[in-house]
């Protein structure tokens, strides 16, 4: 099969299309003929050798796919050959075939295409694990998401709004802010033209999901209401920051963060089951909609990652294999 391989840590040029053996599913796995794979920021960090510290030469990147089941392991009774599913992987999505833990697969939501479904696993599981599990967003609380026009951001905006929460966002252009508000954000601030701390100072914000880090940290702490929770999934503007511990102590704030890729297979299985129970019904009735910015052929993975690095996109970027 054809697959995109990281030949060494570096820029997009280190991604090469190579022939690789087709995976053989273990007893607990299924084999997917991949229709589409979603891109994520962690793919770029992995390619650069900055995600988890493990060697990356020879790795096939990619954390989420959608496709057709073509083989089923003996201990994977839920799925049958011919089923259409989307799935979360630790790596291996940038390929024509992928072997996946059967427990990490979800059915393609009613009315969604395979390409659209490839945008779901990493975004929905990341949002649910961070905002609804770790930060425990409660009824009536307001949540702020930085990077609101990203795949993660638009997923959070739609899911939290559908579940009755007030959602605020930041984004880097007027067009991106319009999209955030179109998909449900009560207000989105263009951080390039307005100080989001000043703009949201009168809001009672209980949870913040941040992928920026850097100087956003102090502003986030000042914005959070008492007993607020600050959750990190990335630190694009810097992981080393100064904290005012008095902000944390006086308001009883909680800071946390996570990476989904290193979590255990059992954790991901339980998370997928919870997402299917609570989020999948929203997709089926149109309260969660796909936002696909652009698709690329598998061979153009480097160009796709360059686009992601530019931050020009709104929503998801996908790699697709022709049928």
Distance between the termini: 14 Å
Task: Please describe the biggest sheet, giving its number of strands, its sense, and whether it closes into a barrel.
Answer: 7 strands, mixed
The H-and-E topology, N to C, reads as: EEEHEEEEHHEHEHEHEHEHEHHEHE
Number of helices: 11
- The strand count comes to 15
- Coarse shape: globular
Specify the oligomeric state: single chain
- Tell me the name of the CATH class of the largest domain: Alpha Beta
Supply the CATH superfamily name of the largest domain.
Answer: Medium-chain alcohol dehydrogenases, catalytic domain
Give the helix proportion (percent range).
25-40%
* SS strand fraction: 25-35%
CATH architecture identity of the largest domain: Alpha-Beta Complex
Mean pLDDT over the residues: 95
Class based on secondary structure composition and strand pairing: alpha/beta
Query: Stretches where pLDDT falls below 50 for ≥5 residues?
Result: none
CATH fold title of the largest domain: Quinone Oxidoreductase, Chain A, domain 1
The Cα radius of gyration reads 19 Å
Counted up, domains total 2
Tell me what you see in this structure.
Strand 14, helix 11 and strand 15 (316-320) form a beta-alpha-beta unit. The chain folds into 2 domains: 2-120 and 261-320, Medium-chain alcohol dehydrogenases, catalytic domain (Quinone Oxidoreductase, Chain A, domain 1, Alpha-Beta Complex), CATH 3.90.180; 123-257, NAD(P)-binding Rossmann-like Domain (Rossmann fold, 3-Layer(aba) Sandwich), CATH 3.40.50. The protein contains 11 helices and 15 strands. By secondary structure, the protein is of the alpha/beta class. The model has no long low-confidence stretch (mean pLDDT 95). The radius of gyration is 19 Å and the shape is globular. It has helices at residues 41-47, 114-117, 121-134, 151-162, 174-182, 196-199, 216-223, 245-251, 265-278, 280-284, 301-310; strands at residues 2-6, 15-19, 29-38, 64-72, 84-88, 97-101, 105-107, 142-145, 166-171, 187-190, 205-210, 224-232, 254-257, 292-297, 316-320. The strands form 3 sheets. Strands 3, 4, 5, 6, 7, 14 and 15 form a 7-stranded mixed β-sheet that branches. A 6-stranded parallel β-sheet has the order 10-9-8-11-12-13, sandwiched between helices.
